[in-house]
Amino acid sequence: MATRENPHELVELAREYYVSGFGRGPEFFEKPGSIVASVHGNYFTDIFGRQLFDTESCASAAYLGFGLPEVMQALREEMERVPSTTPLFVPTAPLLRLAEKLASITPGSLKYSVFAANGTDATEGAVKIARQYWKARGKGGKFKVLHRIPGDYHGMSLAMVSASGHTFRRAPYEPLMGGFVAFNAPYCYRCPYEHSLPGCRLLCARDLERVIQFEGPDSIACVITENTNTGLGIVTPPPGYMPLVRDICTRYDVLLIADEIITGIAKTGAWFESGKQGIVPDMLCIGKAISAGCGALAATHVTEEIGQVLAESGNLHHGFTYGGLGYLAAAGLAGIAYVERHGLLQRALDIERYMGNRMETLKSRSRIVGDVRMSGVLQGIELVKDRQTKSRFEDPRAVAAFIGDVGREHDVLLSCQFPHYGNIITMYLPLTSTDKELGKVCDAIEDAVRRVETAYA
Ligand SMILES: Cc1ncc(COP(=O)(O)O)c(C=O)c1O
């Protein structure tokens, strides 16, 4: 459905009054798909009437596409019943049902939910809880936060920017907060130690132990990490990496926070990627899909033990006026029920297989596909100028814009989210994607790769 507004006026309004994040300049608004008029299914329609398939599902929040009737009905009904709440003080029934559901689908002894609005509130909440937990246990000297570089992104607040592995997101806001210490993230395609599996014996994970020993375990509250490093273009952890990180944290009495804001809820073929990796973190941060893409809802999910220590130690001072809206919880629950009813955990793996086959074939035929990485519907295709040397393109921004434009010719939004790290086509495909839609995405990528090869390599 197109808008009744004059699209050219809207472009002017955006230029005149709207501050766009994520490095987008004023020229962005003229491109197809830049200002949305309506959304439906796996598509949105822009103000010029163009319908596009978004390979990022709105930053992975709309993991079931848009406007599923079951989700919309649950949302509407609860919104009419309780149109506004301050859940900081009083929860509603759907929020409690969602807390119960999360306890049943998260791994191990994870049990209690601290609800918040955005993912950033949930990750920052986890760090606050870690510090409060150690104080309550008489170990107030444990305050440092270890985080991975490069990549891992945990949100936009100053504390989470301090925990960020994105130099470009840190530099403008320096000086950052004290007490945050970085360690190397795994990246087998470009190993920071210039080593390889299996000979490396997971040096990247073992190096965490060195950092902990150097900093002093008595000063460290927690490690915060993604499983798959989505902030580096879907870098999946090498086999055994997450269990070793878990083991090191346990041995040194350091809490492990898994940031599953993107990876959480069915997208990797498991309810949570921590479960898929065989670990139980002490805290697990959930956002985006938790409301089935209907609005700002997130949770810091903690183990029974942490929940009890917090309860005994008095108040947790972490909550937001709109952090836990019941109608968003109702939508999220309807989304989870839809996943269960339609077997979408399996569908995530089928989508991985379909895309994997096409992308590996492309890699075998192309000079510039360096690496293909997938965890369910989360997928990264790393392009390089020269596969031998793995050198990146001279002007990754130009290549990223070019790929985006070729995608638009196919009515597919393709994104190289982080040109700072070269050209990695990054996708969070909806679980509701049909094979026909996946085929269309693959056609767009193949065309883009072929034309980048001619124009830039
Ligand atoms: C891994 C990860 N953590 C945290 C966040 C922050 O979530 P939000 O944008 O809802 O604050 C994001 C957002 O993209 C994310 O991808």
Helix content: 25-40%
Shape: globular
N-C termini distance: 40 Å
Helical region count? 15
Total beta-strand segments? 14
Oligomeric state, counting identical vs distinct chains: single chain
Low-confidence stretches are: none
Bound molecules: pyridoxal-5'-phosphate
- Based on secondary structure, the structural category is alpha/beta
**Overall pLDDT score:** 95
Q: What's the main sheet like?
A: 7 strands, mixed
Q: Please report which band the strand proportion falls in: under 5%, 5-15%, 15-25%, 25-35%, 35-45% or over 45%.
A: 15-25%
CATH structural fold name of the largest domain: Aspartate Aminotransferase, domain 2
Keywords:
single chain; 457 residues; Aspartate Aminotransferase, domain 2; seven-stranded mixed beta sheet; four-stranded mixed beta sheet; globular; binds pyridoxal-5'-phosphate
Explain what this protein looks like in three dimensions.
With 457 residues, this protein is α/β, with parallel strands linked by helices. It has 2 domains: 7-60 and 343-456, Aspartate Aminotransferase, domain 1 (Alpha-Beta Complex); 69-341, Aspartate Aminotransferase, domain 2 (3-Layer(aba) Sandwich), CATH 3.40.640.10. 39% of the residues lie in helices and 16% in strands. It has 15 helices and 14 strands. The chain has helices spanning 7-17, 57-60, 69-81, 93-105, 119-136, 158-162, 167-170, 203-215, 241-251, 273-277, 304-312, 326-341, 344-365, 396-409, 435-456, and strands spanning 36-40, 43-46, 51-54, 110-116, 144-149, 180-184, 220-225, 255-259, 283-286, 298-303, 369-375, 378-383, 412-413, 423-428. The strands form 3 sheets. A 7-stranded mixed beta sheet has the order 4-10-9-8-7-5-6, sandwiched between helices. A 4-stranded mixed beta sheet has the order 1-2-3-13. It has a 3-stranded antiparallel beta sheet with strand order 11-12-14. α13 runs parallel beside α15 and α14 packs across α15 (435-456). The longest helix has 22 residues, at 344-365. The site of pyridoxal-5'-phosphate (PLP) has 14 residues, from α5.
